[in-house]
Amino acid sequence: MDVQELVGIVPWTFIATICNLFIQIYLIKRFLFKPINAMLEKRKSLADAQIREAEQAKNEAQAMKSEYEQNMLEAKNKASEIVASAQKTAAVQSEQMLAEASAQAAAMKAKAESDIAQEKRKAVNEIKNEIGGMAVEIAGKVIEREISEEDHTKLIDEFISNVGEAS
Predict the structure, then answer these.
(1) Which residue in 118, 130, 120 sits closest to 159, CA to CA?
(2) pLDDT interval class at 39 (50, 70, 90)
(3) How far apart are alpha carbons 102 and 108 in whole angstroms?
(4) Domain map (residue ranges) of the chain
């Protein structure tokens, strides 16, 4: 065997090797690359679908967040309105209570003044009666005689009218 035979190109072997290579490329492409490409395409579409779902979920979350913030703002506004209303109601009630208290105090003062005036009249009448009785006794001693009941009443009435005009 010659070295030249080992290094040389045999045309039938070369053609068989090239045909073998093309057949292997065809088989690899047909049974290996097509399923791998199909699987890669399927995974790519699945990843794209997941990205779209994630973006949709993100948009929904943003919408929910804005709705939540709007609801919180409305709740804060409503709470401040309720507090303001409660403060106004409390102020009105306190003013009413103060007005009622001052009215009650004025009524009590008026009643006390009328009671004082009544007691004063009563005391003045009692004093007039006592003074009238003493005046009759003094007059009786001065005149040293008994005065009739009619004279007695007349003297008391005169004395009372004189005392009433003086006061």
Answers:
(1) 130
(2) very high
(3) 10
(4) 12-166
For residue 144, pLDDT beyond 60:
no
Which of 30-39, 43-52, 137-146 is predicted least confidently? 137-146
Q: How far apart are CA 150 and CA 157, in angstroms?
A: 11
Is the Cβ–Cβ distance between 128 and 159 less than 8 Å? yes
| Rounded CA separation 86/82 (Å) | 6
User: Quick one: which of 114, 113, 155, 110 has its CA closest to 137?
Assistant: 155
- Provide the 3-class DSSP secondary structure of residue 148: coil
Mean pLDDT rounded to a whole number for the chain: 86
Spell out the residues 6+ positions from residue 167 whose beta carbon is closer than 8 angstroms to its own: 124
Contacts of 135 (CB under 8 A, 6+ apart): 155, 156, 159
